[in-house]
Design goal:
The chain is mainly alpha-helical. The chain is 52% helix and 5% strand. It has helices spanning 8-19, 25-34, 42-58, and strands spanning 62-63, 73-74. The N and C termini lie far apart (34 Å).
Length: 75
């Protein structure tokens, strides 16, 4: 039986849960690349990372303590 690969959001959520700490776009891009995401360019990588961070915040997995900074931490 073949396992279905994780979505980018699921992969990022798993890494955040294991590593903890603070998460910004750059750290999320690195985590996604390690998980196998190969973006067309740096702009696409950042866009995907920011999208997934916002989605995880919306789901309540992470929070953004300072609304003036795009830095998240586990909830």
């Amino acid at each position: 039986m073949t396992e279905k690969p994780l979505t980018h959001k699921q992969a990022l959520a798993a890494v955040i849960q294991v590593l903890g700490g603070t998460w910004d776009t750059q750290r999320a891009v690195l985590a996604l690349r390690v998980a196998g995401y190969s973006p067309a360019n740096d702009e696409a990588a950042g866009k995907e990372a920011r999208h997934n961070l916002r989605e995880l915040a919306k789901d309540g997995l992470i929070v953004r303590p300072d609304p003036d900074q795009a830095v998240y931490r586990p909830a």
